[in-house]
Amino acid sequence: MDLPANFLALILGFIEGLTEFLPVSSTGHILLAGHFLGFESAGKTFEVVIQLGAVLAVLSVYAAKLWQVFSTAPSDPHSRRFIAAILLAFLPAVFIGVLAHDFIKTVLFESPRLIAVMLILGGVVLLFVDRLKLTPKYEDAMDIPIPRAIAIGFIQCLAMVPGVSRSGATIVGALALGASKRAAAEFSFFLAMPTMAGAFAYDLLKNWALLDPNAVTQIGIGFVAAFVAAVIVVKGLLGYVSKHGYALFGWWRIVVGIVVLLALGAA
After folding, report:
1. DSSP three-state, residue 138
2. What value does the mean pLDDT of the chain take?
3. Average pLDDT of 50-58?
4. Residues 6+ apart with CB under 8 A from 235
5. What is the pTM for the complete model shown?
6. Is the pLDDT of residue 3 over 90?
């Protein structure tokens, strides 16, 4: 018996929120879950738009810090530089995302095998980087220099291939460029805000005509579920990675990727 579409939207929303800020590819997970559960959304808009729920989760958790940064920006060069670093790091995703939007949605989003392979490869990279004896230069996300922030922004664009992981790409990039494990995760959180809000707005604009009342209801359900799950993850992730690193997520990616490939081969 097929599960109701609204219930599937709830499940996928929780998966989105739980995985968005983990380096495991939230988009890859919800696309694969949707594939095996038989969930279809018009223009794959559901999978993109519900990410705004995760953005609002970060905003709620970091509201005090964001207020401090923006309220002190007129008088504090450190705050102004951090805002500039985030905005400049966001720009590569704007240009590449707009240019490649249709190819990403119609080709890459429709390839479960590609997603599984990217999960495995990304897991191997994450395990490799996590085991490197890197000496952090930046213990605070606000201390990452603008040129390195821009480099992280370009690395983030790799995540337009589903299965790579936006947070995974930015975290690995930040670690390689001198950030501590905690600072890398925190910079990834802040960079997610304009990146995911921009993806939400652009995708909604492109596919507004495809949305019927049922699709809007499913997006609303997924949005709320993503928000609740993401709040839980954001509050706990920094403490976890500071103590344990990212190995668990690397192994998770590899296991999920192998299971998916086996399931696709058996189908």
Report:
1. strand
2. 89
3. 85
4. 61
5. 0.85
6. no
Burial of 128 (0-12, 13-18, 19+ CB in 10 A): exposed
CA 253 to chain centre: 14
| CA angle 40–232–32, rounded 5-degree value | 25
Give the type of residue at 248.
L
Residue 86 to residue 152: CA distance in whole angstroms: 10
Element holding 197 (H helix, E strand): helix 181-207
Q: Which amino acid does the sequence have at 44?
A: K
SS3 string, 212-243, reads CHHHHHHHHHHHHHHHHHHHHHHHHHHHHHHH
In this structure, what are the phi and psi dihedrals at residue 179, rounded to the nearest 5 degrees?
Answer: -80, 150
Give the bridge partners for 138, in sequence order.
179
Closest among 193, 84, 104, 189 to 146, alpha carbons compared: 84
Taking only the tens place, the pLDDT of each residue in 89-112 is: 999 999 998 888 888 877 788 789
Assign residue 24 a region (left: φ > 0; alpha: ψ between -120 and 50; beta: otherwise): alpha
Query: Are the C-beta atoms of residues 57 and 230 closer than 8 Å to each other?
Result: yes
